């Protein structure tokens, strides 16, 4: 039979076979093969054999990996071929929309499985391709969202992990987590996610945590402070470098379940079981309550402060003659509730729109960085996209993707360019100085899938 190997390749294969059989103590088989091939000890002694011992196994595993990659590529090729055959002019044009109009579409790029109980929270690393997820299984998992692979599992909390967030001083990014075990923990990604500090102080479950940006709005964020919300009815502001509690904010009459800071770090928006949303000015020594928003008919579960890019659309909903200055950082807000409603608010305290469509508790909200859309997730197993330029019309409902409740949603942070340069597909938002931000078209969600939890990555 004609061989497809060159004489050099055949010689390498024969030596690898002999070395493998010898390493497995199959001496009779190795001796027989030597005799058949005419490869004696004088030609291929034990010292030379050691160099070949693991070669056959390495080649074998490499072939398996390559085979898997080929199968994956064949699947992708078939999908692309199907897209090409069914393409229309309009569908082709949508492929080249700028990122300001991109919305997550099914199917997700990755479905990440490893948590043993529901996923409660997700957060993107501001620079690297890392995503953190927290779960009721007491763990935090770090994923590579580019490869869809689990990097590590972090253990330390003794009860459910309820929220995670990346932030910290520039050049020293940290991961913060909070839990039903009444603790906040700080982890160092540069040191294999070592637990560097634990912040005690709350007297009950801690449900939400966020790093508070510092510096001008739009500039690359840097922070040594973070805020937490707890079932002890308080918000606390912490210094992550000293682990000291700097402020305790009271005012909520029941559990503040969620909190988010403005982009410049001056304001906090909190909401919770007292069915209110409250805006706080934390720029002075004592936090000042600027606004109280009432309207929901059940516990509020999530909130967000609108980015300045959404001001033109929200100003029309609010019947304003002029859109607020882009430098203003707390002009419009959104809240989601167990009453299945999403409410949009303005800085005068008015509810400017009620978005109705979800059939169960609204769990998570995030504004599109381009400003035109709002994304929501809920216990009705859907993700919905609302077009703020069309008076909040629901323009997309993602069904059939989730097996259970959708608990959280996060948009990947912008890629900030200090010199103002972006590559061809970027969408630029002017920041301080020459900094620009390029929208990253990527969304992550966490959910309940049976008794387990899954993370889904949607990307362009």
Automatic annotation (TrEMBL):
Keywords, in A-Z order: Cell cycle, Cell division, Coiled coil, Cytoplasm, Cytoskeleton, Microtubule, Mitosis, Repeat, Transport, WD repeat
Subcellular locations according to the entry: Cytoplasm, Cytoskeleton; Cytoplasm, Cytoskeleton, Spindle pole
Domain PAC1-like LisH-like dimerisation residues, every copy: 7-42
Alphabetical list of PROSITE patterns matching this protein: WD_REPEATS_1 (PS00678), WD_REPEATS_2 (PS50082), WD_REPEATS_REGION (PS50294)
Single GO biological process annotation from the record: signaling
SMART domains to which the protein is assigned, alphabetical: WD40
Any one annotated GO CC term: microtubule associated complex
Pfam families: LisH_PAC1, WD40
Renumbered ranges of WD repeats: 112-153, 154-188, 199-248, 249-290, 327-346, 355-389
Segments forming a coiled coil: 63-90
InterPro entries the UniProt entry points to: Dynein_regulator_LIS1, LIS1_N, PAC1-like_LisH-like_dom, WD40/YVTN_repeat-like_dom_sf, WD40_PAC1, WD40_repeat_CS, WD40_repeat_dom_sf, WD40_rpt
Annotated family: Belongs to the WD repeat MDV1/CAF4 family. Belongs to the WD repeat LIS1/nudF family.
Assembly and binders: Self-associates. Interacts with NDL1 and dynein.
Its biological purpose: Positively regulates the activity of the minus-end directed microtubule motor protein dynein. May enhance dynein-mediated microtubule sliding by targeting dynein to the microtubule plus end. Required for nuclear migration during vegetative growth as well as development. Required for retrograde early endosome (EE) transport from the hyphal tip. Required for localization of dynein to the mitotic spindle poles. Recruits additional proteins to the dynein complex at SPBs.
Name of the protein in its database record: Nuclear distribution protein PAC1
High-level lineage: Eukaryota, Fungi, Dikarya, Ascomycota, Pezizomycotina
Gene: PAC1
């Amino acid at each position: 039979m004609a061989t497809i190997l060159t004489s050099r390749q055949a010689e390498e294969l024969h030596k690898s076979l002999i070395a493998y059989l010898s390493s497995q103590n199959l001496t009779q088989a190795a001796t027989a093969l030597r005799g058949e091939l005419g490869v004696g000890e004088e030609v291929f002694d034990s010292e030379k054999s050691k160099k070949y011992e693991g070669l056959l196994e390495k080649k074998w595993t490499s072939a398996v990996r390559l085979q898997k990659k080929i199968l994956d590529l064949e699947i992708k090729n078939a999908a692309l071929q199907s897209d090409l055959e069914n393409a229309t002019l309009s569908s082709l044009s949508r492929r080249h929309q700028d990122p300001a109009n991109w919305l997550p579409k099914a199917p997700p790029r990755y479905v990440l499985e490893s948590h043993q109980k529901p996923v409660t929270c997700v957060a993107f690393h501001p620079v690297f391709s890392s995503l953190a997820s927290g779960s009721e299984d007491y763990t935090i998992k770090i994923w590579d969202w580019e490869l869809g692979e689990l990097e590590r599992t972090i253990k330390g909390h003794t009860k459910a992990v309820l929220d995670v967030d990346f932030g910290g001083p520039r050049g020293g990014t940290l991961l913060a987590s909070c839990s039903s075990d009444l603790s906040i923990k700080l982890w160092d990604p540069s040191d294999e996610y070592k637990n560097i500090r634990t912040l005690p102080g709350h007297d009950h479950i801690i449900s939400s945590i966020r790093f508070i940006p510092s510096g001008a709005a739009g500039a690359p964020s840097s922070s040594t402070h973070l805020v937490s919300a707890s079932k002890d009815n308080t918000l606390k502001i912490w210094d992550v470098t000293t682990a000291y509690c700097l402020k305790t904010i009271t005012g909520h009459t029941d559990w503040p379940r969620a909190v988010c800071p403005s982009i410049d770090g001056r304001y906090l928006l909190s909401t919770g079981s007292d069915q209110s949303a409250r805006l706080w000015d934390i720029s002075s020594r004592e936090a000042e309550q600027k606004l109280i928003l009432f309207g929901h008919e059940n516990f509020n579960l999530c909130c967000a402060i609108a980015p300045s890019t959404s001001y033109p659309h929200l100003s029309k909903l609010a019947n304003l003659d002029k859109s607020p200055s882009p430098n203003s950082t707390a002009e419009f807000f959104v809240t989601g509730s167990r009453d299945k409603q999403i409410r949009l608010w303005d800085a005068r305290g008015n509810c400017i729109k009620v978005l109705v469509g979800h059939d169960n508790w609204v769990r998570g909200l995030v504004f599109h960085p381009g400003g035109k859309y709002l994304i929501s997730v809920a216990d009705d197993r859907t993700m919905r996209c609302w077009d703020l330029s069309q008076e909040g019309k629901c323009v997309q409902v993602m069904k059939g993707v989730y097996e259970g409740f959708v608990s959280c949603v996060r948009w990947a942070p912008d890629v900030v360019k200090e010199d103002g340069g972006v590559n061809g597909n970027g969408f630029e938002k002017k920041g301080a100085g020459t900094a620009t931000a390029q929208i990253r078209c990527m969304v992550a969600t966490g959910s309940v899938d049976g008794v387990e939890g899954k993370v889904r990555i949607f990307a362009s």
